[in-house]
Design brief:
alpha/beta; 2 domains; 6 helices; Dihydrofolate Reductase, subunit A; 25% strand; binds NADPH dihydro-nicotinamide-adenine-dinucleotide phosphate; binds ligand LIKH6CAM
Length: 220
């Protein structure tokens, strides 16, 4: 499975403010590129922190792209994937609507009644890991279900874990014309951070977009 990380950060490297509310860092050109990347992916993933902060839909904005996917024999929207060890996703979260299939990656510590509630809401629950989602194992199960390209939008905790598990193939970051600041504001990769063996990136493309810059790296 190809794993493509895509996010937007401020000029000072923040993906949100310390209040963890959704901030539009991308401009219209970048949001359109994100929609195109979603359309080219089998599934779009975020961590439960992003679900709680943003209540995203993770679906396509463009009607034409939905029509094109159906013409190619795909569902109109890519599937949605949430890493949520103990099921903190609220039952009324937008990602549980019927606009696209949703996979909830949970751990064995997730309460059984919550798992049933999510399945009743239409989600496919995949359990992997004792206390926290074991991403390599969960990804094997997604791949077995036909997900060949997974786009990961964030947030910083999930992205760090993906780099730590050596699961990222490509990383695209839009750097927007804002300073957000704040030592507690989330960055592209949070978690515990690396102190050695820093993942190395190979620069693939640099492009001016909106009033910012799109940077694209391969992760060898
Ligand atoms: N500018 C941008 O492009 C984007 C910005 N954001 C912003 O990011 C912020 C949210 O980021 P953040 O708080 O880091 O949350 P994340 O979306 O990264 O979710 C993190 C949570 O995912 C769960 N999780 C389950 N398994 C794992 C695992 N193996 N590794 C890591 N996490 C796991 C954990 O909760 P548990 O232990 O309960 O399972 C963890 O706390 C919001 O402010 C949002 O607006 C988000 C996406 C894109
Ligand atoms: N690419 C990008 N640029 C920004 O400026 C952003 N704030 C985000 N946020 C991500 O998009 C999700 C919202 O998606 P929907 O519009 O609800 O489908 C949000 O949850 C973040 O993952 N991304």
């Amino acid at each position: 499975m190809r794993v493509v990380v895509n996010a937007a950060m401020s000029a000072d490297g923040k993906i949100s403010s310390r209040e963890r509310t959704q901030i539009a860092i991308s401009g219209p050109e970048d949001f359109d590129r994100v929609d195109e990347l979603r359309a080219a992916s089998d599934a779009v993933m975020v961590g439960v922190g992003t679900v709680l902060a943003d209540d995203p839909s993770l679906t396509l904005d463009s009607e034409q792209r939905r029509t094109d996917r159906v013409g190619n024999g795909d569902p109109s929207n890519p599937a949605r994937v949430i890493a949520d060890s103990r099921i903190r996703t609220p039952p009324d979260a937008t990602i549980l609507d019927d606009a696209a299939p949703t996979y909830l990656l949970v751990s064995e510590a997730a309460p059984t009644d919550f798992m049933e509630e999510m399945e009743d809401a239409g989600a496919t629950v995949i359990a992997a890991g004792d206390d926290r989602v074991d991403l390599p194992s969960a990804f094997e199960q997604l791949e077995a279900d036909g997900i060949d390209q997974l786009m990961v939008e964030g947030g910083g905790e999930l992205i760090f874990s993906l780099f730590a598990a050596d699961l990222v193939d490509e990383c695209s970051v839009f750097v927007g014309p804002k300073i957000i600041g704040g030592r507690d504001a989330p960055t592209l990769a949070d978690g515990d951070g690396f102190t050695e063996d820093f993942p190395a990136l190979s620069l693939k493309a640099v492009e001016r977009l909106d009033e910012g810059v799109l940077l694209q790296w391969d992760v060898p």
